[in-house]
Fold this protein.
Amino acid sequence: MKLENIKGILFDYGATIDTNGKHWAEVLWDAYQQVNVPVSREAFREAYVYGERYLATHKVIEEKDNFYELLLKKTSLQINYLKENFFLSSEAQNYSQPISEICYGFVKESIANAIPVLNYLYEKYPMVLVSNFYGNVETVLEDFGIREYFKSIVESAIVNVRKPDPAIFTLGVNELNLPAENVVVVGDSYTKDILPATSAGCKTIWLKGIGWDEKENTENPVASGIIYTFTDLKEIL
């Protein structure tokens, strides 16, 4: 089923374009397992939440950090937390580099698969990126060769508005200079993308992948459409 009267697209980035709907905690946990980090999923979850909260309140990520550099900083925070809280021995190796290499490779492959879809949509619609990010999303997009697809970027660290505040989607709508009802938001998070974008008056496409929070698995979503892989966008738009 094609959505009608769509004239522009707002894209989420993290866990939408870069992982094909797989929550970043799940991507990282898979990498932890591949390199045999001897911690439980519960301990990892603690470290993950700690790291995300720390990065949201401290200027750790620099504007010119590419995604691999971001991953090294993010995973170093997690590993240090696990050591400081005795989930890992203080003598344990630094797992940050192998975890970051695995995750970076996963993202490169995911984005390579997304590029034909972005090419297809770029020919039909103006597109804006709306993302909760650390102030370096432009560098990340350039690193992966996809900056050119987006007319502009609305990044939380720059505009000082974060999802799930609907205002960040209104900023994206303004960048497109279109009525909200003619804009569709594509995102992986039901609570951070679909609900607030709907509140902002946009149509929505929920990329329902491997989530982290059970609230994401709602049975009666308000989304205008649901897809299960990024390439399905060609069938709905």
